[in-house]
Amino acid sequence: MSAPAAVSELIARHLDGRADPAATAALDRALRTDPSAARALVRAAVVDAGLHRLHRSDGAAAPAEASITTRLAAAERRAATRSARRRMPRPRLLPPLAAAAALLLGLGIAIWLSRATGAGAPFSAAGRALAAGTELRGAVGLAGGGSVALSADAAAEAAGDAIDPVLRLRRGSAACAVEPRRAGVFRVSTPHGEVRVIGTAFRVTVDGEATGVMVERGSVAVSAGGITLPVAAGAGARLTGGAEPAVFAAVAEVLPLGDARAWNNSSSGVRVMADGRGPTGLPALRFALPGQGSPWASCIWRAGRDWRGAGGISVVLEGTGRGGRLQLEVMDDGPERVGGRDGYERFIVDFRDDRAGWHERRFPFAAFRRRPDLWPGMPDDGFGRASVHGVSLIATGAWQGRVERIGLYGTP
After folding, report:
1. Residue 2 forms beta bridges with which residues?
2. In the predicted model, what is the mean pLDDT of residues 404-408?
3. For residue 406, what pLDDT is reported?
4. What is the enclosing helix (H) or strand (E) of 188?
5. Cα 354 off chain centre by
């Protein structure tokens, strides 16, 4: 599809060096909104480069004030004269020359688009270009398509250029919605690492000790400690600078366990308290389990939940790395009361607190085993998961740590 006459005139003015600021802005809009305009500019520039070559091969100089139309007409007349005299076809651009011209033009267009009408700035706000080094506030537009919404407490600075914009986030959070980019990469740089993205929606939060990343759609790559890892939609990551990024994979369902009051079925001396937020943005709970016996804290719901469509359970926790032994318990189907106690059949999986800091643990349901110490009368019909009634965290000895997200993942 050919470009409209108005666009062709704008292209001719640009190639002839006759475009004023208004014409440059009009061509810039056309190139950004109409793919046929960009193709027409490529074709015209390739032809223009060939015309200059033909002028030089004929020993003639193309006047600077001549338009591309004039140069094209002159070339046509000379080609026709040579054809009549020599009975040879009109000279054409050699394929290598055309390819080289197109490559150079592609680079030129990218540079021109990034510089024309102030478009070289990586960000904008209220129609004003925000160049590298500008402190950013509130909502800003992203060169190449997209937006960034900064929290009220955010400290951020623009860096890079329109092709490769960079958001330097020192504090606070930034919600980023980035359109797919034809060229270049958008990056968010923090004191703890870097996030690279082509097209997605995600949030980055810097809390002083670490950087948290949550991906809503698309995917990003996070880098820290010399390691780069992908993060997919629904997943998150935590960057602490010198360490490898901790990535928290997506789950099919997040269990409603964030309220400390829900963990009201606990052994003596156990405390469960709300304590900030975890790396995936959900409320975190601090568990203080004393050292006597095997302290436990349980969250029980009366209406059974069907877990048969999942393959395992995911727990995001902040460990101590001291090697204490822990158990995750699932309360499967069974009568609500048996001899004054609940009658749920219980299945457990063991693990050790051998990793410090926030991380994710995944336990396939195939790894769970029936508790051997259940009291008489408990069901013994296998880990069916058709009607699950709760979960527990059990320690052997004292343990203090935080738990954020407990969810179901995968398929059986």
Report:
1. none
2. 93
3. 93
4. strand 186-190
5. 30
